[in-house]
Amino acid sequence: MTDTTAHVVLRDVVRVHGDGPTAVRALDGVSLEIHPGELVAVMGPSGSGKSTLLNVAGGLDRPTSGSVTIGDQDLTTLDARALAKLRRRRMGFVFQDYNLIPSLTAAENVALPLELDGTRARLARRAARHTLDLMGLMDLSDRYPDQMSGGQQQRVAIARALVGTRRFVLADEPTGALDSHTGEEVLRVLRERCDDGVAGLLVTHEARHAAWADRVVFLRDGKVVDSTGGPDRAEDLLASGTV
After folding, report:
1. Distance between CA atoms of residues 156 and 140, nearest Å
2. What is the mean pLDDT of the segment spanning 52-60?
């Protein structure tokens, strides 16, 4: 169930790459709110600013102007060390290529962010196995990435993004390297975690994937040009060439 208090708030965010006449305005006054329990999908043509939006929302890039707030913390006021700490503890990132460490088991991969943050290995592994169990992956906890299918690896990556107290998950085309059945399975897991109260931001180029979201935000030339709460409207906009 969606909370009425926004967990993620972007206000008038501008992100400019480069200087002078070659400068590119990747984001141009974007405002966005994401609530606990809500999955927001971002769509748009190549170069529209989708990945830049995700990177700014996750504190990987700083906005040129505007503000980004996670919970009660304004990211623009944090130095690099404090920002890295906040990302480790409160945000999780899911990428298309999984980014699992081949020499670590599923449980070790999921536990790694906690261990890097100072949690004792035994406690971190316990939390990792609990999260894998929530994902239906408990029987894979001792397997290495090359012993798992692509969909299983991506679900492990989602578990790593959600382990501990993280309440904001960001996914950049997480199904791009998967077949359609496996991709739907991964999106179902992400949807279930958001239904449990996590705030989610999903970058995708496929309307059928965006249909898992509560809301779809469309970008063009770094600006929000439409926002809809239903997959039918998404299909109409894509078919008409409006976005």
Report:
1. 9
2. 95
